[in-house]
Design goal:
Number of helices: 3
Helix content: under 10%
Structural class: mainly beta
Organism: Caldithrix abyssi
Strand content: over 45%
Protein name: Alginate export domain-containing protein
Number of strands: 22
Largest sheet: 18 strands, antiparallel, barrel
Shape: globular
CATH class: Mainly Beta
CATH topology: Porin
CATH architecture: Beta Barrel
Distance between the termini: 15 Å
């Protein structure tokens, strides 16, 4: 019995801060569990229980990772290897109630990764209220990380659906940028985290009809800037899904309108967001010592995204998307790279464009290529890839991120990267 296809949630747990040795033993125990499952039947479903997941290994070659952090003299090397396992557990005790626990576990090798993590943690945007992660970072070149990213209870009572805990609330309609998604906007370039981050929240959905609902979602925060709440109405008219949403995120009033449907035979999606912020934060500028400055944002602005995609009968797929960010800049977008963690923007740029095409070369081999570009500063990233099905549940994936642009542009400072991943699903 597959899990229901609507937003999931999680459940709270006491924060645990084990010693490094205990963290490692805990991680080792989890990996042992993965191996046990790996050599059991590929997928287990015993009446009320379902267990699945995957193990995969990602090898990365970076041409010059140090360009991203010009203020650091540490050599981070050119190679990274990430071994990752995921376990998804679903329990269905009643027809109208189910529970899920899902976790991911990473073992990463990279030169001086301990220093790299210490620097990037300063700018992390961890939206989780409860600490359900465990880290082992005592070695310079080795890092282990475990996290429960889904832990939720879902209960349906007549027309009311209640979901509580760590869940993913994905309310955007576009495929690359979701300005109306206040809880879980995702990073398209983070391709190795297919499930995408969740949030600790309470979600109430009341179905007013077969194709309409009213939803209320609330996510607590350790600071007032992290509190998110929103009210949403969704319906369908003339085969189009429409939604209206109003809420509060990052000290900002957010009002949005979204749609998704067909324009002739093509998929047509859009999102329009109005933001009225009252936000003050500490801004980071790597070019101006002492690097940290106070910044205030209090002027309303608009954000909009349009998406169009079409699949031909021969499997050729075409997709284009455009994002307008009223708070973004037309030049030196790299200098606003850290600001968006505080403002909730999806990119630091005023305009962003995306083009994507894919084709099934054979039934087992698929080729893709995308372009993500900043039209104003003329920087971008090209991503060609090949995916091959080696056998049942075995996949091989090769991908490159090829960047271009001058210094100070949105993508100009990023290195070219090359990835090779093998994955087994169970």
């Amino acid at each position: 019995m597959p899990p229901k296809q609507y937003p999931k949630a999680g459940y709270t747990q006491r924060k645990i801060n084990p010693e490094p040795g205990q963290s490692f033993l805990w991680l080792y125990s989890l990996l042992s569990l993965f191996l046990a499952i790996l050599f059991s039947p590929a997928k287990a479903q015993l009446s009320d229980w379902e267990v699945g997941g995957y193990v995969k290994n990602l090898f990365t070659y970076n041409e010059n990772l140090n360009n991203i952090f010009p203020g650091l003299v540490t050599d981070f090397g050119q190679f990274q290897n990430t071994f990752q396992g995921r376990l998804n557990i679903f329990w269905y005790p009643f027809d109208n109630l189910y529970f899920s626990l899902q976790s991911r576990h990473l073992l990463i090798y990279q030169k001086n990764i301990k220093t790299l993590n210490s620097f990037t943690d300063i700018f992390s945007d961890n939206t989780y209220y409860f600490d359900l992660k465990y880290e082992y970072a005592d070695k310079n070149d080795f890092y282990a990380y475990s996290e429960i990213d889904r832990l939720y209870l879902d209960w349906t009572i007549d027309a009311l659906q209640v979901t509580i805990g760590r869940q993913r609330i994905a309310w955007g309609t576009c495929l690359v940028w979701n300005p109306s998604d206040l809880f879980n906007p995702f990073n398209f370039l983070d391709f190795d985290y297919e499930e995408r981050p969740g949030t600790d929240a309470l979600l109430l959905q009341y179905y007013t009809g077969p194709v309409s609902q009213i939803a209320l979602a609330v996510s607590p925060g350790k600071t007032k800037e992290q509190v998110v709440y929103t009210l949403r109405y969704q319906t369908n008219y003339e085969n189009y899904d429409f939604s209206l949403q109003g809420g509060w995120q990052k000290q900002t009033l957010r009002l949005s309108f979204t749609w998704a449907g067909q324009l002739w035979d093509a998929g047509f999606r859009g999102e329009i967001l109005y933001s009225d912020p009252d936000l003050e934060y500490t801004r980071f500028d790597p070019a101006l010592p002492p690097f940290f400055f106070k910044q205030k944002t209090d002027k309303p602005y608009w954000t909009g995204a349009l998406s169009l995609d079409y699949t031909f009968s021969n499997s050729l797929y075409l997709h284009g998307e455009y994002l307008y960010n009223g708070l973004g800049t037309r030049e030196n977008a790299a200098l606003r790279r850290w600001d968006i963690l505080y403002t909730g923007e999806l990119t630091p740029a005023r305009q962003s464009a995306f083009l994507h095409t894919a084709y099934d070369i054979t039934p087992l081999l698929r080729g893709d290529i995308f372009l993500m570009a900043n039209p104003d500063d003329r920087s971008g990233i090209v991503g060609p890839s090949l995916q091959y099905s080696l056998a049942t549940n075995w996949d091989l994936y090769a991908l490159a991120f090829l960047t271009y642009g001058a210094t100070g542009t949105e993508f100009g400072g990023f290195p070219n990267q090359y990835f090779l991943r093998i994955k087994f699903s169970f």
